[in-house]
């Protein structure tokens, strides 16, 4: 079946530190991979995506590379800011032609950045 | 351009009652998915609707049902509420004719069952 395992939190960093949040997946077929971010009291926002092996998704200084050989999609940012404090979710979706299939989410990683 | 909207924002119900949550998709989107997010957990897929029919369903009992209207808006109904149904319910919309890889989420409805 499909599942996502992500690094347990919480993660606490100082401003300008390097961030890595690990994510590995199990999937049947060839999924698309996503990182979503959830700020306090809000819904989920798509941060970045990769739809095939070796693709790199990037947005707002965050990056993640779809590694089929290690079934991983680790999130990285070179220099975090206080405003990056949020919960980050790794997710996958089966590719179903023109329709996005259901999303399978990890448990989320709470990131807190101190000034 | 309004994004995904959900109502109500918060709701408190008693065990055994029934509840209806509502979702309006982003303009131009025709597919609506519902997720349940328990405190401290990732969202769990409940079901997905397009063309007014349920197309996919997650591992949720029949107490959870839904509907999609001709204007693509959707309702989630939960009967015989349990304490364990307390969660944030998220609606997500997407387009089958647009970019299939992007789902936009609403802010959610916080349901508390006492």
Characterise the protein shown here.
The complex is a heterodimer of chains A (115) and B (114). Chain A is 0% helix and 56% strand. Chain A has strands at residues 3-6, 11-14, 19-21, 23-26, 32-38, 44-50, 56-59, 62-65, 75-77, 86-96, 99-105, 109-114. In chain A, strands 2, 5, 6, 10, 11 and 12 form a 6-stranded mixed beta sheet that branches. A 4-stranded antiparallel beta sheet of chain A has the order 3-9-8-7, with no helix packed on it. In chain A, strands 1-4 form a two-stranded antiparallel ribbon. In chain A, β7 and β8 (62-65) form a beta hairpin. The mean pLDDT of chain B is 93. Chain B has no helices and 11 strands. In chain B, strands 2, 4, 5, 6, 9, 10 and 11 form a 7-stranded mixed beta sheet that branches. A 4-stranded antiparallel beta sheet of chain B has the order 1-3-8-7, with no helix packed on it. Chain B is globular and about 40 Å long. The interface between A and B is medium-sized, with 26 and 29 residues.
